[in-house]
Amino acid sequence: MPRVVVVLGLVSLITDVSTEMVTAVLPLFATLALGLTPLAYGLLDGLYQGATVLVRLLGGFFADRLRRPKLVAGTGYALGAAAKLMLFPAGGPAALSAAVAVDRAGKGLRTGPRDLLIATAAPRDRLGGSFGVHRALDATGALLGPIVAFGLLALAPGDFGMVFVVSFCVAVLGVLLFVHRVPEHRAERPAGLGSRPISVRDVASLMRIGGFRRLLCAAALLSATTIGDAFLYLVLLSNESVTTRWFPLLFVGTSLVYLSLAVPLGRISDRCGRNRVFTIGYGLLLCAYLTAILISGTIGVVATLVFLGAYYAATEGVLPAAAAPLPPAELRATGISVVQAAVAGGRALGAVTFGAIWTAAESDTAVLAFAAALTAALLAAIPMITRTEAR
Fold first, then answer.
1. Tens of pLDDT along 39-52?
2. pLDDT digits 0-9 by tens, 238-288
3. How many domains does the chain have?
4. N or C: which end of the chain has fewer CB within 10 A?
5. CATH number of 271's domain
6. Cβ within 8 Å of residue 165, ≥6 positions away
């Protein structure tokens, strides 16, 4: 495995320890400490996802235009660290929303350039495995973050401020590792472009690539039917399948499954087709929805976490691996970012919609509505993207 892939995985591990510390306590902080309703939390979760849409596009575009992916990604990591410090004085929805927006903007800015560094370093026939290794290390951080948050809240119950400060310190360590151990990759300018930088017109030309266009549409459609982790865990909480005390550890269970399956499913996608594995992942997500509302108690919780973690393993690393070979080399970071921005936009729409349905009806009704929508989306997406496969 290329050294850059491993180092970037370690950076993501440390960064995700910081991020998931906050993610694990944010639903409780927002709904219990700040008193947000399901609709208000849906809007916040929509912001959490939607704030990355435009910034993802800008991150990929400037990484290709400047040919400085490390610089752009490093700026994103620094913004993510600053956002953790902004959470400490957040005493209302407005301050919390601002901190969340900065954090998601940082994530959006760094994702495309970071994935470009991985795609450039990895052999084309092992892209799925390389992204799988990176996502497995990333999932390790996602596994450790909630454990650290759980431990801190056990030492000082209700002290969310302590969690936010420790999260900031960990994020700074990730920034330092990225700056000092990831080499800058300066892409050669392809002969066809001459000396001019890429433009918006070049980016628009991506939509003329049939395989890329189909993958983009399918990813956007499926993501709009996605229920965020925190919402699904709140459904388990409302059904009394889990108590508030153990709530942060639900994130640990999902990350443990994700960590276990990310590399194997990445390698399987290299052999059997990345688009195929990607759509199977959304079938696993549908199973998570149905399990969360149809099976109560510990068995239901465990099954939901297994399906949810398997869904992430089959999609998070596989999607950029599927997208990376489709655009021309000079637009690779932009192409990856466009697909990921479509996913983020779809998830933002899904979060707001789910929160609105839950507020108007009840949690099980909202989950059933999304399960029906996901089934319809799968029926439309499967023939759309399994016709062609870039290897």
1. 776 777 666 666 67
2. 888 888 778 778 888 898 899 899 999 999 999 999 999 999 999 999 999
3. 1
4. C
5. 1.20.1250.20
6. 85, 88
